Fold each of these.
Amino acid sequence: MSNVAEMRVIVGDSERAERAEELRILEALLFAAEEPLDEKTLSARLPAGADVGALLADLQNEYAPRGVNLVRVAGKWMLRTAGDLAWLLTRETVAPRKLSRAAVETLAIVAYHQPVTRAEIEEIRGVTTSKGTLDVLLETGWVRLRGRRKAPGRPVTYGTNEAFLSHFGLEALADLPGLDELKGSGLIEASLPPGFTVPVPSDDPTLREDEDPLEPGDLDLGLVPPAERVEE
Amino acid sequence: MSNVAEMRVIVGDSERAERAEELRILEALLFAAEEPLDEKTLSARLPAGADVGALLADLQNEYAPRGVNLVRVAGKWMLRTAGDLAWLLTRETVAPRKLSRAAVETLAIVAYHQPVTRAEIEEIRGVTTSKGTLDVLLETGWVRLRGRRKAPGRPVTYGTNEAFLSHFGLEALADLPGLDELKGSGLIEASLPPGFTVPVPSDDPTLREDEDPLEPGDLDLGLVPPAERVEE
Amino acid sequence: MSAEDVAFESELEAPAAGEPALVVDVEGFEGPLDLLLTLARQQKVDLAKISILALADQYLAFIEAARKLRLELAADYLVMAAWLAYLKSRLLLPEQPAPDGLSAEDMANALAQRLRRLEAIRQVAEQLLNRPQLGRDVFQRGQPEPIAEIKRPQWSATLYDLLSAYASRRQNQARAIVRMPKRSVWSLAEAREAIERLIGRSFDWSPLDQYLIEYLVEPSQRPTVLASSFAATLELVREGRLEVHQHTAFAPLFVRARANESASGGVAADAGNG
């Protein structure tokens, strides 16, 4: 009796060892494979009599909680990074980019005329300002949504922030040159129609009398464009 | 009292969960990588404060009995199929190029005696080394031009690189098989310039005192090994 | 030892006893040192205990045999043979100071050292090649997953960009407004409406200019007012609502409302053509 029991244990052990070896082989095959493998191909590489379906199910279970999962794609099997770790496979790089002429102009108008609405920007520029231009400015981190103008349509008002000052090396917004200085530096010609003024800019965060605070949803408008995804 | 104990358990659980997640991330990174990764790179992708060394040791243990192993080559980490499964995987790959006896010998001399000049290789082999032999080795990407010896004729010095270590599964040059015996018998030191105490061989990319950097033209000789893969 | 006693193979293994007497195959050797090493291995002793004298004899016998067979020998084999012959003679003679300061013993030791070094490197080369090799025995991930790069733009602009863009835009806009005053043209419709209103139902002949006096004050307006009102007048005449009268060419135009709708305006209109 005891001999039989012992035999059984030994058989059990050797079966377990066999199965473990089959799992190792399966794992190595899937790891080294250059493309997803079907069960027939896997079967051909495994020891005769191996139950490929059961082995795959076991391996899939083993890998399920891990950083890499065994997945079946179009009837074929492959190891793949766990879905929740996909972020690991991305890397952010900083790409220096120059602002477009339209964006620089719009930024300047926001700086000088803040709080300013999109319609007001367009009036000053004399051309339509695309939403993309304002999005880019929001993305620079130099322009912020201030509030909403108390006016029909309740348009959003834009202003600059500290990052703007810091990027352009300004101690305060009031350091932006006024009309006389612009003329003095030759950026504006002397002969201009009477009544031409350049505002004294202020980025005081206190809302003006004609401004309402932003509403909860305003900052999640998707105003910030998704970053460009580039495959390497 | 019971509250404190409970707290401890909770802390322990959350720590365990954290560690499990760190292991998942490490696993995913190593699986996805095309090249061996160094600890610094891995660290940068892990949560702050993760003990990369301990995590790698854990993962290495976990994978040790499996079909895929975590190995350290050239001071970097990579997953590769277990060595004992070679018989199984080899048949699906194209037979890698077989090196001539002269090339194998020359490779070994470069590996064990680096930095080494062609004249020194010839001295050891007792035969003229054809240019073709060194070209073949440079082409494998395992051997590189290091610099020029500060000696009459300023001969080029050769050494191995990371690809060599990675190909032969060596953690570092010190793991070259038989190196200790070779050193013990004084067969390596024999070729050292007098007064030198730097251990031989060394693939430390820092040029030795008796080496000058390569000159601009040296790399256009067609001798150049394929550039080492630049880190993305 | 005669050459016949020695068998040669290019392989490193020592030949089995009783093999063919002599295989002189210089092609199989990687130079004289390789040949020497192969011969040395046939002494079947540790290289450290090798007899250089015996080795030199074997080498010279091999070279002699090759020469008898008229085999072409590369120069370095002959150089080695000459050197070994010299070494042999020095080893056999009582020690004398050598010109280069090396004793025969030193020279023999140096040769033995070179042989040991070559053998050692061959052994480690073999060990190295027997290691599992990447892509031959062990494999890396067959489908590495590429890292996607997310390009985060870092925007830049200078204060000068900002100010010059602002200044030129504001300046251009200011100019654009001045340069384009509202064009004041008296349209045909305006003229017609004015004439209908002014002349109304006044059935007496009156000069057209008189009705338009208030519109003709601004000199720049005169051409457009006159042109449009004349055209409007003709239109009203054609419709039979006005009558036009002119004494001679370039004389003032007289107009009046038509009392009788059925009367012909054709003649009057002709007069207007002058």
Amino acid sequence: MTEPAARASGITKRFGATAALDDVSFDVMPGEIHALVGENGAGKSTLIRILGGVHGPDRGEIYVDGQACHFSSPREAIAAGIATIPQELRLVPALSIAENMALGDLPMRKRLGFAVGLDRARMRREARETLRVLDFAPDPDCPVRQLPFGERQLVAIGKALRRRCRVLILDEPTAALESHEIKRLFGVLGRMREQGVAIIYISHRLDEIVSLADRCTILRDGRVVAVSRRGEFDVAALVQAMTGRIGHDIHTETPSLGDTLLEETQSREDGMRLRAGEVVGLAGLLGSGKGRVLRRLFGVEAEPARVLIKGAPKRLSNPSHAVAAGIGMVPGERGLGLIMNQSVRDNILLASLDRFASRKGFDRSAADRTVTTLMELLDIRPRRAELKVSALSGGNQQKVILAKWLAREVDILLLDDPTQGVDVAAKAQIHALVRDFAKRGGGVLLGSSDLGELARLCGTVVALHRGRICARMERTDGLSEQKLLRAIGG
Amino acid sequence: AQSEKITIGVALAQDDNPLYILMLKGIRARAQELGWEVATVSSNEDKLKQINGVQDLIARGVKAVLISPIDAVGVNAAYDAAAQAKIPIISLARGSSSPNQTLHVGINEKQIGREIAEWTAKQIGGQGKVAMLVGPSGAPAFRNLAEGYTEAMAKFPGIAIVFRTEGPLSRERGVKHAEDALVANPDLKAIYTSNDDIALGAVQAVVAANRKGQTLVTGMNGVPPALRAVKDGGLALTVELNPLTWGRIGVDKLSDFFKGEKLENQVFIPHVLIDRANVDAKMPNN
Amino acid sequence: MSWKQTAAQLHVRGLTPLLTLLVLCAFTALATDRFLSPLNLTNILVQSSIMAVIALGMTFVIIGGGFDLSVGSTVALSGCIAALVMVKAGLVLGIVAGIAAGVLVGLLNGVVIALLGVNPFITTLGTMVLVRGVVFLITAGAPVGDEGLPSSFVAFGSERFLGIHYLVWVPAVLLVLLSWVMHNTPHGRRIYAVGGGRDASYLSGIPVQRVIASTYVWCGTLAGIAGVMLAARLQSGQPTAGEFYELTAIAAVVLGGAALHGGEGTLYKSVIGVFIMVVLGNSLNLLNVDSYWQRVAVGAVIIAAAAADRLRWRR
Amino acid sequence: MSWKQTAAQLHVRGLTPLLTLLVLCAFTALATDRFLSPLNLTNILVQSSIMAVIALGMTFVIIGGGFDLSVGSTVALSGCIAALVMVKAGLVLGIVAGIAAGVLVGLLNGVVIALLGVNPFITTLGTMVLVRGVVFLITAGAPVGDEGLPSSFVAFGSERFLGIHYLVWVPAVLLVLLSWVMHNTPHGRRIYAVGGGRDASYLSGIPVQRVIASTYVWCGTLAGIAGVMLAARLQSGQPTAGEFYELTAIAAVVLGGAALHGGEGTLYKSVIGVFIMVVLGNSLNLLNVDSYWQRVAVGAVIIAAAAADRLRWRR
Ligand SMILES: Nc1ncnc2c1ncn2[C@@H]1O[C@H](COP(=O)(O)OP(=O)(O)OP(=O)(O)O)[C@@H](O)[C@H]1O
Ligand SMILES: Nc1ncnc2c1ncn2[C@@H]1O[C@H](COP(=O)(O)OP(=O)(O)OP(=O)(O)O)[C@@H](O)[C@H]1O
Ligand SMILES: [Mg+2]
Ligand SMILES: [Mg+2]
């Protein structure tokens, strides 16, 4: 038996009162894709951050190729051959695509054996070549901040692929990707596996895990609860192991529709209409304009949206107008929805500060009650409202954004990939909440890269292509993932 | 004939200090009498800015420069520029070591410092503790004044300088530092200050500490509020420097120069110590 | 890195400003018994009072993620305008005019920064220079009101109420009031939100521009009040007053634990920051430290205080 | 908001500093024919030279996401040390010692800020005060070298080479050299990366702390060179030199389009920023604007220039 490419043994890591990892052992072989699954906050990202040199473990050892390693910075881990795509996008927005991809080791031009400045041509070439594998062909000199979120994710993946590494770690790389890019990515991963690279893969899309992983380690509350090999696990088994519960089965009743809540009055190729009790889905490939529709209706795009809200004409040129009109938006990029340095409580209350204003000032107890109720309802863990949002796991952060709008009691929710990075159980929970929200007379516009989600949740799905509506499908006519995939041209 | 009108350039050390404000007034008044134009630049104790300002004046085509050099050496480049443009440059108040200086209309700062010290020593009977609130660190005028003062005080074995700070010429700082000085030395006999603004602040602190009449405060410049303070006994002494006159003399000397007269190298302007005895004659409304 | 910090460490960290101040006081009290004399303690309170009011305003701006270099000039403007108007039109109008001048400068800053989106550093550097020019223009560079301001105004600058100087009452009352505003009104909490994350606040429907503008108006208003207080203390309007106040005020706020990137800060800790700066100057004066060494000491203590904060805070 | 901006707008935006400068020049040239005289143009170049060197260093720090208030004091320190050493040990050692002093201050800032993680504003405010104290201590507050610095040094401050002042050659050569470093070496790109995203850079294996420290060393070194140049220009080491240079330098860099949050900025545009400041002062002097009005005008133009940048840039 060969030596594992990377091995963690007996890792324990605490953050203050939270035990993120408790005596976790884990290894990955060369030429193996080893999946790491678990609920939000189970400790997956913490484990790979320790492997990547971001955190030091409180106890336990890291071995790379059998050698004990003590990384004190990501730099050392990278030097040891570990490349990581972190869960939170970590690119420098002002730098170009090519530069971001080359950031850790910039190639030099050599003359007579001496380095004479950066080799920009090579940087561009390498960027183009690496991204082509992912079927993405941007201008390599384009600053990353001009890319939409999904495309940035591709750049981040490309950045890790470009490095010749022995261990590749991907923390939820597909959370914002469409099926097309995902297929591409899997192709690349398969090839790298054949070349003997050890791959650690984290995802909440359990079907991906089943089709991709050679081995799967399941974490629950910072402990390893199971390790199983390909063929020994299916989605239901994973869910059962992760949550300790039987998988939720999803009921699909169609709520009755009420009056028109929102209607765009300008005639446009992607105009929207939403009725009370309705969940309208937006499907489309990367860059198809789903995000733009949602942003426009929230007043964030340059051109203001002209709409009728419950029959009253409104001009939405600023989110404060939209919020005043009873609209809330969960943006596609998690960081835009949260104040990372502030507490969960403050973030949940962010949109409803005036709701709790009384004559005697801010009604703290009412606000706290709301926060407690919502944290309970959405199962935000840990249940500590004073914790900074940055200390929450990614999925729990996502729930905080949703809680913010529930606290405000808006009528209309604009959701841009609201379940990205959310575990199966929580996803089901969010789906139930969305359905419940609609049942109580709310309207939801749901843009999602997860076609299954759209198929399960929506009464109507609108397919977008290059900023136009190219198809419109009703649940009554039958919705399925395959049908949607065909409609968006994937 | 219009183009014959003479423009002179003025580059004083500060534009927010009463001394220089009055000096500029004197210059403007005299120039107007002669039918000259005045172009000013300001530098606020920044030497490079003063050099730049003089360069700008010369580029503008002035026929002569009146300068109050911030430093005796530091702004010599300004004098060189004037020499290159072949125009006279006269130093007011402060002087320069430059060979290109046409004339220095000055005050003898060290001498004034010594005189203040001697006056103070006499008032307190050659005995006791003294505090010094000196002007901004590094500004030569205040350094010279303080040096003269310290030198003269050293001749009195009974007098000790127990407190000394340097800082801005503001009334606020006068209050603050005099307060601290009086806490550290409640039996302070005298407070020396480099200018009337600090002095008036110090007087306030002395009054608040119930030391009026027991702790003497001396100022410098003889601005009207200081004169009033001398009259009502808060301030013990200030020194009249006649900045208005300096300005006028500077312009007169230039006029002499244009007439082709030979100028001497240095003219000193007399100063007058003003205390209770002679303040009435100096009050502005008299 | 941010994710290394925990609640417990934060708690200790929050106490650093107070600890620094106590260490400083203890040290000076041991070195000279005059430090704890009632006269000196009163002096420290009075000497801190004006800067404390300015620092309160600066805290608003800094929590909101901004920066204000114009407070020093604003202090001079308000003081001079208060004195000018007071001589002509009486006490009350003078005070109102002085504070109004501060409000106006704050409004100018706020509009340019929040509505036009210009960088706060460059904007307030501009107003700092501009306002100082205006002060000199309206006063011709000479102090205002030396012929005598209303005696009640002069008394306000030097007398006591319940044994405490009026000048000290002002920041004390303001601190209580504004702390309440900061923590118990939506407005106050919006300032924290906007400072902590502009994008997230914007996307939560908070009128970001208006909130940011308001912090500058707060700052200008408080600088205006400080200017009037200073005029009372100096018994005149001084056109050169307030130079370098901006740096002292920002230093005090940062020593009080506020983060210059916004979203963090506490009003009363900023006041502690002011005390650190004032006590430091007072100690060095009482110990008759040479003024050149004073600068070295002030510089070193500022760095050390900030570094201590960081060192405690890392594990 | 950031996501509203497009490439085309960015492109136009990049030209604003140059346009501002041209508008300013055109305006003054129309108002007075002396502006374009060879003498005046030479003056402008020489007047800009020293601040340009400082602004180059400040650009490094600001691109790296930092801030340096200590450059003014560093300029004074280097100048005085250069003069002191020069008088005793000759020209070359003097220059080396002067620049070395700047390097040391930069290193001190860099270590405290990058390694200890102390806020740059408060750290460099501390060194600004501390270094000024040191300058006064070593010079006893009096100018150094009054008795005469080496004549070749004085010549360096006033004479020309190929028709251009030596003082102007320095920033010109430095600009070419450093622009190359910034754009064609990994070190330069890392400064942009760290300024544009610390966490991302850290996770990419960039030695973030070392890069940040290096920006302060660059800044200190260039301030040291500027200090030596200033000593040559002032024919002496002046302990009070350089006051407020930090604000002017930062203003120039920001007018040149750099973002104070880091990651953006171009060296040559910072030099254009310096020209804007210098030409502004020069124009006001040529037009004989009263010094109080000059302040008002300088403040207003700074704000207007920055606002123009923003207004062009919004849709
Ligand atoms: N910097 C931190 N400070 C305090 N607690 C932290 C910090 N980072 C993580 N935690 C806690 O550690 C636990 C594990 O978090 P981690 O991010 O590893 O979860 P995860 O399995 O990656 O979840 P997700 O699927 O949501 O990304 C969580 O309870 C989280 O709140
Ligand atoms: N800031 C920007 N600058 C330039 N182009 C942009 C910007 N944001 C989006 N685009 C372009 O606009 C188009 C639509 O983007 P949008 O983000 O709305 O797509 P999307 O369908 O929401 O993508 P995703 O599937 O990632 O959510 C894309 O082609 C994208 O390249
Ligand atoms: Mg995670
Ligand atoms: Mg999108």
